[in-house]
């Protein structure tokens, strides 16, 4: 009853996602980011350095960075490493001892480690709401939206989305920030969510909509003060320092280690999967760039010039 060895499969793209029945939009003033069961024990079932794990880690990292910057609460779930038979309950019948067999792997992977101020909840059942204070924490903070990331899409993540719906909490499944036993399981989970209990988005779409919500809130606040409030994120996402932080997050490096004119592919090992995730994210922010354009001159300085030109051109159309 051990976890299966999970074969690599392509992370779903925006074109692969089902149509949503609901038209909810994530709002930085209402949302909580959930990082679901990203523990070493569960990730060890995947092939390292291959899809979907490479995108999974990069996309959750991007969401963590932006949500923290926007003041969105971050909640992690993690199964305890030592559970009695009574505590495991019916999970034992399906999964046996589970994480009890490897309590040394109970930690959340270091690439996504909780930061000061983040909340870590013990996870006891498929749903993150069962035997936890997740709903209470959200109510205390006036939050009624849950951005769901992590593993496994068709088990805990889907069950959490369904229970959020039943508690009148708007759930958002970030489809390319989830992973599963197979592409088929992954597709089933997002299809069920989109049709029955949640809105399904990509990471780029989620970031774009959160930024729009932050811009709207800033404009309202500025209007009350009688002054304009320019959107720093909209004006500066292509600045070299902003790009440096974004790329460093994908590479799990310190930003200080990446110079403006370093060849990001040859010198830092930036692979095509991560470049494509940048393409999607920047398109979501209004810069119509292509993989080929980024790969031709992969330096922060060149990308900053390209993105600024593309953003200016798009704005003038």
Automatic annotation (TrEMBL):
Keyword Phosphoprotein listed: yes
Coiled-coil intervals, chain numbering: none
Protein name, entry field: isochorismatase
Gene3D superfamilies, per the entry: ACP-like, Isochorismatase-like
Pathway stated in the Swiss-Prot or TrEMBL entry: Siderophore biosynthesis
Names of required cofactors: pantetheine 4'-phosphate
Residues modified to O-(pantetheine 4'-phosphoryl)serine: 272
Keyword Signal: no
Keywords: Hydrolase, Phosphopantetheine, Phosphoprotein
Lineage top rank: taxon: Bacteria
Organism per entry: Cohnella fermenti
Enzyme class of the recorded protein, top EC level: hydrolase
UniProt-listed PANTHER family: ENTEROBACTIN SYNTHASE COMPONENT B (PTHR43540:SF3), PEROXYUREIDOACRYLATE/UREIDOACRYLATE AMIDOHYDROLASE-RELATED (PTHR43540)
Family, as annotated: Belongs to the isochorismatase family.
Every Carrier domain range: 234-311
Catalytic activity: isochorismate + H2O = (2S,3S)-2,3-dihydroxy-2,3-dihydrobenzoate + pyruvate
Enzyme Commission number: 3.3.2.1
Cofactor: how bound: Binds 1 phosphopantetheine covalently.
SUPFAM superfamilies documented for this protein: ACP-like, Isochorismatase-like hydrolases
GO molecular function: isochorismatase activity
